[in-house]
Amino acid sequence: MMRVSSAIVIAIFAILFLSCSEDKEDVIKEVAYYSDGTDNGYAYVDLGLSVRWATCNVGADKPIDCGCYYAWGETSHKSDYNWSAYKYGTDRDKLTKYCNDAAYGNEGFTDDLTVLVPSDDVASTLWGGGWRMPTVGELQELKDGCFWQWLDDYKGTGVGGFVVYKAKADADKGKVKCEDSNPALEAVYSIDDAHIFLPAAGFRIDGRLTDLEYSGNYASSSMHLDKPFSAWCLNFSSSALELLYCYRYYGQSVRAVCPVE
Predict the structure, then answer these.
(1) Looking at residue 122, what DSSP letter applies?
(2) How far apart (Å, rounded) are the C-alpha atoms in residues 199 and 209?
(3) Which of 8, 36, 118, 223 is least enclosed by beta carbons within 10 angstroms?
(4) Who has greater pLDDT, 58 or 261?
């Protein structure tokens, strides 16, 4: 596969909007986004990890767009995110797929599936090629293997979130510069360096979008083994970054991965 030189310039003179989400104040700006190449037409960045990471959320056209929100194991976005609208169960103890404990399965159902199969993986289904949702281990690797910097205004677009840099030194791996922490690290990294941007897209529950511009919830393909009604995700705000588990019916962002070749 041909590698594209860093800092590919994509000329954009368009209205900034939040795909599958609520409209934001219009921004017209020419912005350069970093990319190392493409898989099946979708751009990725090589962060020096076991997988390559997409430059955009699933359902987004640009790194600053929120994209669409998906319940765990579902491959289309929708208006309501709750148990009654969830594809694989109507309550936390009435699961009909991905259940390793009869106490949580509908009428004692179990199938011992704990990672999404390709047909239930929205990245694999919609993007094809080598794309898929990350596992919880790969989210952990992203957290521990990169340098993270929160920005309130990424590239002058007015969009806040985390810039996730390819670490320049082992000592930088896993370090997080929130709003008022680790000021010395900021000077070491430039927005022209290899990175991805994760916008604070919030999440959806019932019919509402929650915490837009305040937090990010990025889904994995991994079910929580002790709480099969939930799945692992990466959650962040301007002051925190952690792996935790959320109810499977929540509408979350998805940032896809593809293999290193």
Answers:
(1) H
(2) 14
(3) 118
(4) 58
